[in-house]
């Protein structure tokens, strides 16, 4: 255990820089909450929620940190190492407040005065005094939550007629203390109530007893930490089993058990404790001792209906969870009929109007459709042609290339591409102007059209470059074909321009090759032709 806490203390030194980033700013306060208990138990979760809620409503920005001692597993002799762990972890943070909840957390803080000496200490006590006077500082704030157990029973007697109470709990010191509190409360009511105590019984004995329905009997749960067969369980888990199998309503003192299936009532609410604690910290009252009431009246709507408890008996200040909105409950049939009527009117109106529009516009739509079809056909043709040369553009040739590659992959046919570039075309534009340059491109395009086969596809690839897809043509045939084109262009008399030549790069398709690879080889061949003096063919 000692080694474990030394290890934790050393590791946390490396992470305090991260904490520092989110720590105290100019107008912020830092608060550390130390709980004696585990992190995820319902009471701890509720108290944290209340603290966070109170701090969010304050005018100051706060940084709230949480630590959980899990005191059932932490021995007293380990406090020294736990205090070292806290000092190491938060060595770079100056806390304004330290809030301690539970006996172990309070004992740790009050017995180790060197932990965060500049912080104001806030000690949360229950109804039993646990803070030793000699260990207190003048600046300490003690907040004592004093539950009103009588109000819980008063609420139960007010909403339900009771002749018998079955009490479930334990006979250990804490359990017997709870039983004595309940006995005293019941005796204060001048009612002839039969009380049966099921202490230290196993879960099967308890549920067997609670399965017997009785309109005038209730069960009261005083916490259990096992199923009675040796298996450890949380009080919440035991409550879930009891409430699930019971045929009579189950009540208790504690709000954290609420969602386990208890009916509700005036309960000890840890969220209220957390919220009131947070507000007291920011209050201007300088008293060192405060008493708060942790009670809150809350009921589950489904439980009220299940046990046929009259909702009118519930006080207006009570919170009823899972309750549907009153308006929809009371007028759901009228709302349903109204919605159906509106939908019916809208549908009829729509159908009439739709029929009217269809009759009026049907002929017009048909004419427009036919016109659009014609325009679309024209646009499709135009969109795939280069406006200057009338050749296919890159968009159109891409489709052809894809189809040729697919066909060659399936049938193993030959295919080559020719990449043609006009030599010194920029010089032609500079000397003769762009109009002549455009005319040269148009005349070259015409020559290409006149000298290719019907199975070949020509496109203007971009600028002064042209791409020819030669289907079913191997490299030797492509070379002859390319030489024919080169000579035709070289021998052609271009109007208002000097002699025009072209360089041609050739690549033959290889099985499994992508077009990008094929084009890359043709492009390299073209650049090779240019590098070797232009007006030539390379492959």
Automatic annotation (TrEMBL):
Keyword Transmembrane: yes
Domain of life: Bacteria
Membrane-traversing stretches: 333-353
SMART domains: GGDEF (SM00267)
CDD domains assigned to the protein according to its UniProt record, in alphabetical order: GGDEF (cd01949)
InterPro entries in UniProt: Diguanylate_Cyclase (IPR050469), GGDEF_dom (IPR000160), Nucleotide_cyclase (IPR029787), Rev_trsase/Diguanyl_cyclase (IPR043128)
Pfam families associated with the record: GGDEF
Domain named GGDEF: residues: 413-539
Keyword vocabulary terms for this entry: Membrane, Transmembrane, Transmembrane helix
Signal peptide per UniProt: none
NCBIfam families: GGDEF
Name listed for the protein in its UniProt record: Diguanylate cyclase
């Amino acid at each position: 255990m000692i080694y474990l806490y030394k290890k934790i203390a050393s590791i946390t030194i490396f992470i305090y820089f991260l904490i520092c980033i989110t720590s105290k700013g100019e107008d912020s306060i830092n608060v550390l909450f130390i709980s004696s208990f585990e992190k995820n138990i319902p009471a701890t979760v509720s108290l944290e929620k209340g603290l966070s809620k109170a701090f969010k409503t304050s005018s100051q920005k706060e940084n709230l940190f949480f630590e959980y001692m899990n005191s059932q597993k932490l021995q007293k002799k380990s406090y020294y190492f736990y205090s070292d762990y806290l000092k190491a972890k938060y060595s770079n943070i100056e806390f304004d407040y330290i809030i301690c909840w539970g006996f172990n957390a309070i004992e740790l803080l009050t017995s180790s005065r060197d932990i965060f000496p500049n912080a104001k200490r806030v000690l949360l006590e229950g109804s039993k005094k646990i803070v030793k006077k000699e260990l207190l500082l003048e600046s300490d704030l003690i907040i004592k939550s004093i539950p009103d157990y009588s109000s819980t029973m008063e609420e139960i007697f007010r909403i339900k007629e009771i002749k018998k109470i079955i009490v479930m709990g334990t006979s250990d010191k804490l359990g017997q203390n709870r039983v004595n509190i309940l006995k005293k409360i019941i005796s204060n009511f001048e009612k002839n109530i039969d009380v049966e105590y099921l202490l230290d019984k196993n879960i099967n004995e308890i549920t067997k007893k609670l399965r017997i329905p009785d309109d005038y009997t209730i069960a009261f749960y005083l916490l259990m930490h096992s199923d009675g067969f040796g298996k450890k369980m949380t009080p919440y888990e035991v409550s879930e089993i009891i409430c699930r199998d019971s045929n009579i309503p189950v009540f208790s003192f504690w709000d954290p058990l609420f969602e386990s299936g208890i009916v509700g009532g005036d309960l000890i609410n840890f969220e209220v404790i957390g919220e009131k604690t947070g507000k007291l910290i920011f209050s201007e009252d300088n008293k060192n001792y405060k008493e708060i009431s942790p009670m809150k009246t809350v009921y589950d709507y489904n439980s009220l209906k299940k046990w046929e408890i009259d909702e009118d008996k519930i006080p207006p200040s009570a919170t009823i969870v899972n309750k549907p909105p009153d308006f929809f409950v009371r007028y759901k049939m009228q709302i349903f009929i109204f919605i159906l009527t509106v939908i019916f009117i809208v549908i009829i109106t729509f159908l009439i109007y739709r029929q009217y529009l269809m009759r009026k516009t049907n002929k017009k739509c048909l004419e427009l459709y036919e016109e659009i079809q014609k325009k679309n056909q024209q646009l499709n043709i135009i969109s795939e042609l280069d406006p200057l040369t009338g050749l296919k553009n890159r968009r159109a040739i891409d489709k052809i290339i894809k189809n040729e590659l697919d066909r060659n992959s399936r049938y193993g046919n030959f295919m080559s591409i020719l990449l043609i570039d006009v030599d010194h075309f920029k010089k032609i534009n500079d000397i003769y102007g762009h109009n002549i340059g455009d005319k040269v491109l148009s005349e070259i395009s015409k020559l290409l059209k006149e000298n290719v086969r019907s199975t070949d596809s020509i496109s203007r690839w971009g600028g002064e470059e042209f791409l020819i897809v030669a289907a079913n043509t191997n490299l030797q045939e492509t070379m002859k074909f390319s030489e024919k084109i080169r000579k035709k262009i070289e021998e052609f008399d271009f109007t208002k321009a000097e002699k025009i030549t072209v360089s041609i790069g050739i690549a033959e398709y290889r099985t499994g090759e992508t077009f990008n690879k094929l084009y890359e080889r043709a492009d390299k061949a073209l650049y090779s032709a240019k590098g070797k003096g232009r007006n030539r063919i390379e492959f």
